[in-house]
Design brief:
With 481 residues, the protein is α+β, with helices and mostly antiparallel strands. The protein has 17 helices and 20 strands. Bound molecules: flavin-adenine dinucleotide.
Length: 481
């Protein structure tokens, strides 16, 4: 390792190669703080060439590495390896090209999500908008195929990535896709988006941006229950209205967010539904009235329409404050991320309520209601023995409820280390073997973010096949995740 560290120092310079304990502490976790591993070394390359040289040095030394953007991931995707290298892209923050006539932007991976929209404002915008957008990097967004409030109408990151420059795990620099929309051949770009740092490191990203909508209209409607608000969501969507965003917060989330944002939300109400319409002015006006009528028909007696941009921003601030605001009502919480068919919202929310009561724990709900993408926030006090474990168990049972409803174990936060044990609940052995073969084709030496996403660590030389029980497992001495 010492020899490799010396090489890395030579590539990025002494200043950007961290080995001291106090320097590495910053990097030992991502947003999933329950897991922490101090890497052997963290390097902060400044260019694609430096990334390539670092990856090549790791390949020669046979040392695994993990890519990290801003470290805001919530599934432990950027969790380092104790005997590995952490390659951090936070110095690579240049907007390389803005081509508005062709609606394209090219950026380095460390550029934040918000900075992309800023680079093309005011006439254009970049639609995927994770709530973490002021800090999270485009490289991280690509690796997680990140979503956000406006993805209901506009689609996830994958809809907007048209090209990537990637350093493959053997150090080769390749270009996938390009400025054009749909190049011929296999969709390697599609395979990379959402691959959670297991297929290489993106060093350049070409993104599509859209013309800013002519007008935006936003309301918040309050209901007595999430059930009633869920009915309103279904009715709005079934009526043919396609809101830019449709977001829900339950009673606990309203209470926590109000303490932080001071938007004057009525604490104690069962649910708040934030609906935003955007597009041509006349269409928005007409559709907006329909939305107000649906909310009232479904039981809302308090519909507040944003009177100006400042009030609209306040509505959004309250919604986006929901995760951090939970710290005001609970010392610790897990952010869960599951998906269900939108029509199952009322029954799954009831099931989550039932589970919270069974465990005697608080679960707040704040979510992208239009996509059926739930974010239950499971509150616990880590100082009480066994409470974190019970909260984790409860989180897992919420995912089971999502799967039973025909949904998925993750909507946008990825699998990382956190959810790999749930993968076999969603995919059977041949599916997992197919994923593994794809991974091995890109990374035969298994050096890129090993131990993430796939439930059972496997080497690329192993022949995937039908699962056979290991004798240790049969003897009850080992457990299979
Ligand atoms: C308060 C809060 C709110 C959030 N809201 C949302 C939300 O609304 N929607 C949503 O989708 N997510 C949300 N997230 C999760 C997180 O912000 C996203 O997953 C984001 O895309 C992570 O970006 P990052 O730069 O922080 O990536 P990191 O956490 O650094 O890394 C995430 C993964 O990407 C890989 N990676 C990083 N850079 C590269 C690269 N250049 N090439 C290849 N792989 C790379 C890493 O190895 C890791 O597997 C939220 C997080 C927080 C803390």
């Amino acid at each position: 390792m010492e020899e490799l560290i010396g090489r890395l120092r030579g590539i990025v310079g002494e200043r950007w190669c961290y080995t001291a304990e106090h320097q590495l502490r910053t990097y030992e976790s991502d947003g999933l703080l329950q897991y922490a591993v101090r890497p052997a070394v963290a390097v902060l390359p400044g260019t694609a060439e430096e990334v390539q040289a670092c990856v090549r040095a790791c390949a020669v030394a046979g040392v695994p590495w993990v890519a990290r953007g801003s470290g805001s991931g919530l599934s432990g995707g950027a969790l380092p390896l104790a005997e590995g290298v952490l390659i951090v892209t936070s110095r690579m923050k240049r907007v390389l090209e803005v081509d508005l006539p062709n609606q394209r932007v090219c950026v380095e991976p460390g550029v934040t999500n918000t900075a992309v929209s800023s680079a093309v404002a005011p006439d254009f915008f970049y639609p995927p908008d994770p709530s973490s957008q002021i800090v999270c990097s485009i490289g991280g967004n690509v690796a997680e195929n990140s979503g956000g409030a406006h993805c209901f109408k506009y689609g996830f990151t994958t809809t907007y990535v048209c090209g990537l420059e990637v350093v493959l795990p053997d150090g080769e620099l390749v270009t996938l896709g390009g400025p054009e929309l749909d190049p011929p051949g296999y969709d390697l770009l599609g395979a990379f988006v959402g691959s959670e740092g297991t297929l290489g490191i993106a060093t350049k990203v070409w993104l599509r941006v859209l013309p800013a909508p002519e007008t935006v209209k936003t309301l918040v409607a309050f209901f007595d229950s999430t059930h009633a608000a869920g009915e309103a969501v279904s009715e709005i969507v079934q009526s043919g209205v396609v809101p830019g965003a449709i977001e829900m917060m339950d009673r606990i989330a309203i209470e926590a967010s109000e303490q932080m944002a001071h938007a004057g939300y009525p604490v104690g109400r069962g649910a708040a539904l934030l609906v935003e319409l955007d597009g041509a002015e006349r269409e928005c006006e007409a559709r907006f009235e329909e939305v107000v009528a649906v909310c009232e028909r479904c039981g809302s007696d308090d519909v507040r329409v944003a009177r100006d941009e400042a009030e609209r921003q306040l509505f959004w601030k309250t919604r986006k404050a929901a995760f951090p605001a939970m710290g005001r009502i609970s010392p610790n919480y897990f952010v869960q991320d599951g998906v269900i068919p939108r029509t199952k919202l009322p029954e799954v929310l009831e099931a989550i309520d039932g589970l919270a009561q069974e465990y005697g724990m608080i679960v707040a709900n704040v979510f992208h209601a239009g996509d059926g993408n739930l974010h239950p926030l499971v509150c616990f006090d880590g100082r009480n023995e066994g409470e974190a474990e019970r909260a984790e168990e409860l989180s897992g049972r919420i995912l089971d409820a999502c799967l039973e409803a025909g949904g998925s174990i993750t909507g946008e936060h990825g699998v990382g280390v956190d959810k790999k044990r749930h993968m076999p609940k969603m995919f059977d052995e041949p599916d997992l073997a197919a994923f593994q073969r794809l991974r091995c084709a890109w990374d035969p030496a298994g050096l890129a973010n090993p131990g993430k996403v796939m439930p059972t660590p496997r080497l690329c030389g192993e022949v995937p096949g039908v699962y056979r029980q290991h004798p240790l497992e049969a003897a009850g001495l080992a457990e299979r995740f």
